[in-house]
Task: inverse folding
C-alpha cells in the first residue's frame, strides 16, 4: 500500500488515480499508524508550506516520516511535497520544514511571471533509475511560486530553466522530490511514476531477501 | 523555456458540451469525458470546463463531471461557472479539478480570491474576467468594462484596474474573455490582451474570437498572452491541436510538442 499524506486540502484524487492505474493500492491518510504501515509514501503537491506543516504536526506524522526516511522507505515529494522536505521556506518563514534535506525554499524572482505555470523542459545532470527511458528536454507540468535550494548540489538530478535554474528532481537515498506534477504531465509524467513504482517493488524484494 | 499553452474550453450545460455565439444560440457538441480524452491525446496542454448553467441544483452535475474527467486525464483541468464559496471549491478540488475559475462572485466579494488563495494556494485560483468595450458618457471615452452574470450585467469596473486588483488579492492566473470578439471567429482582442498582460505578473489566458491559426499566433505574440483558450475551431474540427501547434512552432512560438 502506498500512503498519500492528507494535509486536509486540495486535489489528491489525480495522484491517487495515477498510482492505481499503475496497479498500486493507495490510501489517503493522516493517521500515523497507517502511514507507518505503508510500503511507500507520497507527499502531494497541494496547499501552502505553513498549512501543510501545521496539519502534519497536528496529526503527529512528522516523527513517523523522519523514521521512515531513516529506515530507507521510499518517499516521493511532489511540488509543495518536495519543498516540505527542506528546512525552511520563505512562504512561511517561522515554520520549520521536515528538514530531511539541508537547504531552503525561496520565492521565484519577480523578474519573470509568477507562478511558474505550465509546461517546461527538464534536463538531467546524471543518470538515475527514476528517469530511465525519459530523454533530455521533455516537457513536464509546473504550477509553483517557490523553488528549492539544497545546500549540497550533488542531490540535484534534474533542473529546469525559468530565468533561474530550478532544481526539479532531487534525490537522497530512497527519498525523491520533484517540483513538477508527474500526475499532470501526460506520457512522461506517467513514465516517471511507473519508474518510481518499479523502484518500490525492487526495494521491497531486496529487503525481504 | 516555458511553452505557450493551448487550452480547449468546453462549455458545459446539463452535463453536455455546448457552444454558442455571444453566450447565446447554444449547440450540442459532445460528451465532456470523450472530448476531454480526445483533446489530451491530441496534445492539449490543459482543459477548461465552464458550467454555463450553474444553477444551484446543477452544481452537483458539474462535480460529477469533474470526477469522471479526473479518472481519464493526465493533464490539468480547471472548472468554472457559478462558484462562490470555499466549500464549493473544496468539493471541486476533491473531485479532481486542479484549478477553479471564479468570475461573478470575485467581483461581488473580492475577499473570496484571498480566502481561496490562502487555503488552496494561488496556483489553483483563476479569476475569469468578461470584458466589453463600453462608451463612458461622462468622460466621452471608451473603456474596457467588466461584465458579470455570464455577460449580462455591466459593473462599471475598468478591466485593467480589476486585473491588477485580482493579482494583489492572490489570483494565480487571469482568464480574459473579450465579449466583443467571443464566438465571432474574427480573432482575439489583441489590444485588450496585451494591455492586461503587460500590467500583471501572473499568467494571462486569452479567450474569445479564435477562428484561424493566425489568430492564435497573434494573441500569443503581439497580445503577449501566456495561453490561448480555444473552442469552436477545435470542436467543429476546423483544425486539430497538432496542426495548431505545428503552425505556432513555425512562427517561433514555443509550444509543447514531441520533437
Result:
Amino acid at each position: 500500500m502506498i500512503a498519500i499524506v492528507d494535509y486536509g486540502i486540495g486535489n489528491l484524487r489525480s495522484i491517487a488515480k495515477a498510482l492505481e492505474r499503475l496497479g498500486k493500492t493507495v490510501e489517503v491518510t493522516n493517521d500515523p499508524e497507517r502511514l507507518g504501515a505503508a510500503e511507500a509514501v507520497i507527499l502531494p503537491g497541494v496547499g501552502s508550506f505553513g498549512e501543510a506543516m501545521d496539519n502534519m504536526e497536528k496529526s503527529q506524522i512528522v516523527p513517523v516520516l523522519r523514521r521512515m526516511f531513516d529506515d530507507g522507505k521510499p518517499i516521493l515529494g511532489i511540488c509543495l511535497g518536495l519543498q516540505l522536505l527542506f528546512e525552511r521556506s520563505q512562504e512561511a518563514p517561522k515554520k520549520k520544514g521536515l528538514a530531511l534535506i539541508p537547504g531552503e525554499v525561496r520565492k521565484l524572482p519577480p523578474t519573470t511571471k509568477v507562478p511558474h505555470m505550465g509546461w517546461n523542459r527538464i534536463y538531467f545532470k546524471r543518470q538515475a533509475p527514476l528517469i530511465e527511458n525519459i530523454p533530455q528536454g521533455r516537457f513536464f507540468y509546473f504550477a509553483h511560486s517557490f523553488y528549492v535550494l539544497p545546500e549540497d548540489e550533488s542531490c540535484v538530478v534534474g533542473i529546469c530553466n525559468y530565468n533561474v535554474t530550478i532544481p526539479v528532481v532531487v534525490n537522497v537515498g530512497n527519498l525523491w522530490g520533484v517540483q513538477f506534477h508527474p500526475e499532470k504531465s501526460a506520457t512522461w509524467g506517467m513514465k516517471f511514476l511507473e519508474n518510481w513504482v518499479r523502484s518500490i517493488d525492487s526495494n521491497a524484494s531486496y529487503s525481504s531477501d | 523555456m516555458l511553452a505557450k499553452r493551448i487550452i480547449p474550453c468546453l462549455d458545459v450545460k446539463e452535463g453536455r458540451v455546448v457552444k454558442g455565439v455571444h453566450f447565446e444560440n447554444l449547440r450540442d457538441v459532445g460528451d465532456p469525458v470523450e472530448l476531454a480524452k480526445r483533446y489530451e491525446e491530441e496534445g492539449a496542454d490543459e482543459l477548461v470546463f465552464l458550467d454555463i448553467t450553474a444553477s444551484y441544483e446543477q452544481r452537483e452535475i458539474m462535480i460529477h463531471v469533474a470526477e469522471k474527467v479526473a479518472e481519464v486525464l493526465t493533464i490539468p483541468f480547471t472548472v468554472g461557472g457559478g462558484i462562490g464559496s470555499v466549500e464549493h471549491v473544496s468539493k471541486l478540488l476533491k473531485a479532481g479539478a486542479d484549478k477553479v475559475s471564479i468570475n461573478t462572485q470575485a467581483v461581488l466579494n473580492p475577499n473570496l480570491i484571498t480566502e481561496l488563495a490562502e487555503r488552496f494556494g494561488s496556483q489553483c485560483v483563476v479569476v475569469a474576467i468578461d470584458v466589453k468595450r463600453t462608451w463612458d458618457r461622462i468622460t466621452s471615452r471608451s473603456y474596457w468594462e467588466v461584465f458579470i452574470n455570464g455577460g449580462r450585467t455591466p459593473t462599471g469596473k475598468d478591466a485593467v484596474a480589476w486585473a491588477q486588483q485580482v493579482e494583489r488579492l492572490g489570483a494565480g492566473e487571469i482568464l480574459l474573455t473579450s465579449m466583443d470578439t467571443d464566438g465571432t471567429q474574427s480573432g482575439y482582442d489583441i489590444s485588450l490582451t496585451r494591455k492586461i498582460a503587460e500590467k500583471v505578473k501572473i499568467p494571462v489566458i486569452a479567450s474569445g474570437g479564435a477562428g484561424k491559426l493566425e489568430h492564435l499566433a497573434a494573441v500569443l505574440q503581439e497580445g503577449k498572452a501566456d495561453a490561448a483558450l480555444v473552442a469552436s475551431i477545435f470542436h467543429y474540427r476546423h483544425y486539430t491541436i497538432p496542426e495548431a501547434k505545428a503552425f505556432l512552432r513555425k512562427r517561433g512560438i514555443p509550444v509543447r510538442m514531441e520533437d
About this structure: Residues 2-208 of chain A form a domain with the Rossmann fold fold (CATH 3.40.50.880).
